[in-house]
Amino acid sequence: MEATNGKIEGNFSCWYVICTVTRKEKSVKDCLEQDGIRSYLPSQKVIRLWNNRKKEIEIPVVSKLIFVYLTSSELEKLKKQNLSFLMKNAEDYITISEEAMADLQEMMVKSEGSAEKSRVLLSQMGLE
Question: CA angle, 93 as apex, 105 and 90 as ends, to 5°?
């Protein structure tokens, strides 16, 4: 986990963590992607039982969190939409390095969405 000066200036871009409303992660991700903002939502497949019927659904590994790759102009779009907010650690925005995001995405592919393995990496990143 890295910290910035709390502001996104110029054309600097990196991965940030944003919070959403509970159970709205997928719809927020879809809205971001419609606006051309690169985002990542780690998810896992689980089997749920409803009325004696099994159904496989996909749920977020960590609720209320989405990772976004933002530039200053994209940050302004995000603020105008008022969908979510950037997470801060004290006074600085929480940023994730390219290597850490690549590790998370690779782990999600290898674990096929296993919650336990991905939560270990997220806790190492300081997000769980």
Answer: 125
The CATH architecture that domain 2-124 belongs to is 2-Layer Sandwich (3.30)
30 HSE (CA, 13 A, CB side) = 4
Q: Residues 6-58: pLDDT tens digits?
A: 455 556 788 988 888 888 899 989 988 888 889 999 998 888 998 889 999 99
State both tokens at 106.
């690779």
Domain boundaries, the chain: 2-124
Q: What is the DSSP string of 63-92?
A: TTEEEEEE-HHHHHHHHHHTS-EE-EETTE
With a threshold of 0.85, does the pTM exceed it? Answer: no
